[in-house]
Structure formats: C-alpha cells, structure tokens
Structure to design on (367 residues):
C-alpha cells in the first residue's frame, strides 16, 4: 500500500470510527434527556429526524441537486422512499429511543444488534443455504448475549423491564427491514441520497406521530427543556445523526464495506462507555459478558459474510454514484477519492449496518 493509499485508508478508518462513536453518543444523549426531563420518545424522534433530515436536504441540494430532483420525479423510487422512510428509518429510530427510555443506551444498542442476526437468517432463507460456520457461531453468541442481559443468568426471572425487552426486540426487527428493503434504491441512487431523503421523509412521519394526539382532542406537548436540554437535543440531531451518517458512509467508501462493518462495532461500545462514564449507569458482569458476546457476533457475521476479495476493496477514484452514473450502467470515472459523505452501493458480502440509524452498505448473503 503506497503512502497516499495508506493515508486515505487511515482517514477512512478514522471517519468510520467517528461515525460509530457518534451514534453511540446519541444514544447516551437520549438517556440523559429521559433521566433529567419529562420527555417522551416521540418528541425526541421527531426532533432528531426533522433536524437531521433538513440538514441532509441542504447538503443534497448543494452537492447533488440534479440527482436529488431526478429522484423526486421518479414515482417508483419515491414510493419506495416513503416505505423506507416510514417503516424503516422512522420505525427504527422510534423503537430505539423507546428502548433506551425503558432500559439504557448501552443495553438498547446491544439489543438492537440482533438486527444483524435477523438479516443473516433472512438472507440464508432466501438463498436456501445454511449459515456459514462463523455466522452460526455468531447466532449462538447473540442468543447467549440476549439471555445474559435479559435474565442476568437467572432462568426464573426477567432482569430487564418487559417493555424494554419488547422495544429492543422490535427495534432489531425494524433494523432488519431498513437494511434489506432499500437495496435497489441504494444501487440506483447511492447511499447518501437514499439515506438523506429517507431521513427527511421519516422526519415528516415522526412529526405527524408526535402531533397526532391533537387530532383526538389531546394536546401537543413540547417538553420544558432548559438550555442544556435543547443543546443535548441538538447534539442528537446534528452530531449523533447527520454527522454520524456522513462520516460513517464516507469512511466505508474509503476502506470498503467489510472493513467498515467491523469498524461499525464501535457503536455499541461507544453507547456503553458513554452510559457508564458520563451518565453513571452501572452494568453487571452478566451485562458486560453479553455486550462482549454481541460485539463478537457482529465481527463474526461481518467477516463470514465478506470472504470474497472484492468485498474488501474501497471505491477507487470514484464516488458511489459516478461508479454507475446513477442508473446502473458502468461508467469511466476520474478522481482520487469518493465525494465526502457519499457511501458505497450494495456489494456482495456483509457490511454491518450502523445500528441506531445508519444505512447498510452491503449486507446480503451470497452463496
């Protein structure tokens, strides 16, 4: 690896790690809001998605205006984006924040990691092939991790609140939906356009869900936040969502989907560390063992699903859209690095998705 390529690779590693860490930070910020203010998950979700969605639209209009407008004129793509934004991103964001409200940032993020397992099982079922050895071991790790976290090793009791476990499991299912559903959108339009527009649409859905009680005679409640509360809420939208997306997607474009998926394991680690050191959340030995097993599962499934050498290759000298000119047709491209904030299109192999709201860049089972 030449000096220039090495520097680019290291920069990509730094971007992907920073993106994962910021997603974990956003989970801890949500936990902080629940602990210090009378606030509900619907308001946090609406503020997060509307704020970050607006920033994405500004970025897209500034950097990909023609492609963005072409996407909006494509009725089939627009229908798919609505489904992705509402049933993928919005459902994932809301269930994740609700899970944090019932448990804590570290536990909610680790339970969300089960989404990787559902994707693996669905991909194996569609391919009619059993999991690879590493994937099967990862599945066992995930089941044991969930058992340890939920029961603390005691078969006769549930250590987590039932609502927290239910929201965590529901969240993992929504993760699988938003990973698997938008593959064609990402192939045609690229990950940044798909993620950005999907986030904006999901933000509208989140706003409607938050304001819906007014339709039945209820009031729309804006929580009484002080300056610190509004600052933390802004940090969730700007740093924990918008910046996390762009950094992670750009990092993956530089280092490749499989390496990027491994670096994405920073998110549950980050969420747990922030919860413990910043918020003083206490974790038991069973919790830590479960967290370690879940991170190990992510690594095992990512490596097992990305055996082909091509999966390790970052995009060389082109951004994701230029690689196919946005319409699936190969094109010659010039340049030395992907445009900042642009991710890669779905590739063979397995690229672990960002857990709390990122878009998968290549998770699919290949025989």
């Amino acid at each position: 690896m030449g000096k220039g390529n090495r520097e680019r690779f290291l920069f990509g590693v730094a971007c992907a790690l920073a993106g994962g860490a910021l997603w974990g930070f956003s989970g801890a910020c949500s936990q902080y809001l629940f602990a210090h203010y009378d606030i509900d998950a619907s308001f946090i979700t609406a503020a997060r998605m509307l704020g970050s969605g607006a920033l994405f639209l500004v970025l897209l209009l500034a950097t990909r205006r023609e492609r963005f407008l072409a996407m909006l004129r494509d009725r089939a793509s627009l229908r798919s984006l609505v489904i992705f934004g509402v049933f993928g991103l919005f459902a994932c964001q809301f269930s994740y924040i609700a899970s944090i409200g019932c448990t804590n940032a570290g536990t909610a993020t680790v339970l969300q990691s089960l989404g990787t397992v559902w994707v693996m099982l669905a991909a194996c079922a569609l391919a009619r092939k059993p999991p690879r050895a590493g994937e099967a071991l990862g599945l066992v790790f995930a089941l044991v991790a969930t058992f340890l976290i939920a029961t603390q090793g005691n078969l006769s009791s549930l250590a987590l609140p039932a609502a927290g476990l239910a929201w965590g499991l529901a969240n993992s299912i929504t993760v699988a939906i938003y990973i698997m559903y938008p593959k064609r959108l990402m192939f045609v339009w690229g990950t940044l356009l798909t993620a950005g527009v999907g986030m904006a649409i999901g933000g509208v859905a989140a706003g409607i869900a938050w304001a819906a009680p007014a339709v039945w005679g209820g009031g729309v409640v804006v929580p009484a936040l002080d300056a610190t509360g509004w600052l933390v809420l802004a940090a969730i939208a700007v740093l924990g969502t918008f910046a996390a997306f762009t950094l992670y997607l750009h990092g993956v474009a530089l280092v490749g989907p499989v390496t990027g998926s491994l670096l994405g394991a920073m998110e549950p680690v980050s969420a747990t560390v922030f919860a413990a050191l910043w918020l003083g959340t206490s974790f038991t030995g069973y919790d830590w063992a479960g967290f370690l097993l879940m991170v190990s599962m992510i690594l095992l499934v990512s490596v097992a699903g990305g055996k082909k050498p091509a999966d390790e290759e970052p995009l060389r000298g082109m951004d994701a859209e230029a690689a196919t000119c946005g319409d699936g047709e190969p094109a010659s491209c010039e340049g030395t690095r992907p445009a900042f904030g642009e991710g890669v299109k779905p590739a063979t192999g397995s690229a672990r998705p960002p857990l709390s709201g990122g878009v998968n860049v290549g998770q699919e089972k290949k025989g």
Q: What stands out?
A: The longest helix spans residues 3-36.
